[in-house]
Design brief:
alpha/beta, RibuloseP-bd_barrel, binds fe (ii) ion, 8 strands, binds ribulose-5-phosphate
């Protein structure tokens, strides 16, 4: 069962309710949080997640592209996140462990992401205790970038790692996913597809979501 997580980065922030209603046939709402330090862009933060929580029952898949995320886990959990994803590159291993423990303690699903230049092995210390892995298929920071096909072997390696150590764990991919690339990442083992520009840029959004789900 393939899940689709449209990214609000490609929505119109002045019409968020309208743009969330438009993706009601999807599985997760993907919320990109950027701090201008971990990535060279600033997006949205805790108050926006809190407001989104009030207007949708869809699971909120919050992708934290922020430095030292342990500082903000409780705030995002209290704001209503269902999944909180932190980056292995965003802090020391000890503090990543602390962030994942804080996510679990808050009753939220813990997830871990790796950037394109980070190897699958970087996930090994945490793979048994997480609910989802997010493999970036663009350099994080901006929507609308081209899919990096050189990430496909890594998606396969992460799928093998998940099947071996934590079979219930989901494998999400993010960046440049559209009708031309969905099949490639599904074949490599992904089961959750983030898509921003290809969903919000489509003339018929429910049809595009169905198309991506089929791969
Ligand atoms: O995390 C992200 C960027 O850092 C976004 O989720 C991602 O880029 C989605 O946008 P698109 O589907 O247009 O590539
Ligand atoms: Fe994202």
């Amino acid at each position: 069962m393939i899940k689709i997580a449209p990214s609000l980065l490609s929505a119109d922030f002045a019409y968020l309710k309208r743009d969330i209603d438009r993706i009601s046939t999807a599985d997760y709402v993907h919320v990109d949080v950027m701090d201008g330090i971990f990535v060279p862009n600033i997006s949205i933060g805790v108050p926006v997640v809190r407001s989104i929580r009030k207007i949708t029952a869809m699971p909120l898949d919050v992708h934290l592209m922020i430095d030292r995320p342990v500082r903000y886990i409780k705030a995002f959990a209290d704001a209503g996140a269902d999944i909180l994803t932190v980056h292995t590159e965003a802090d020391t291993p000890e503090q990543i462990t602390a962030a994942l423990e804080a996510i679990r303690a808050a009753g939220v699903r813990p997830a871990l992401s790796i950037k394109p230049r980070t190897s699958a092995e970087a996930l090994l210390p945490w793979i048994r205790g997480i609910s989802m892995v997010l493999v970036m298929t663009v350099e994080p920071g901006f929507g609308g970038q081209a899919f990096m096909a050189d990430q496909l072997p890594k998606i396969r390696a992460v799928r093998e790692m998940i099947d071996r150590y934590n079979p219930g764990c989901e494998l999400e991919v993010d960046g440049g996913i559209g009708p031309d690339t969905a099949g490639l990442v599904i074949e490599a083992g992904a089961n959750v597809l983030v898509a921003g520009s290809s969903v919000y840029g489509a003339a018929d959004i429910p049809a595009r979501i169905a198309e991506l789900r089929k791969g």
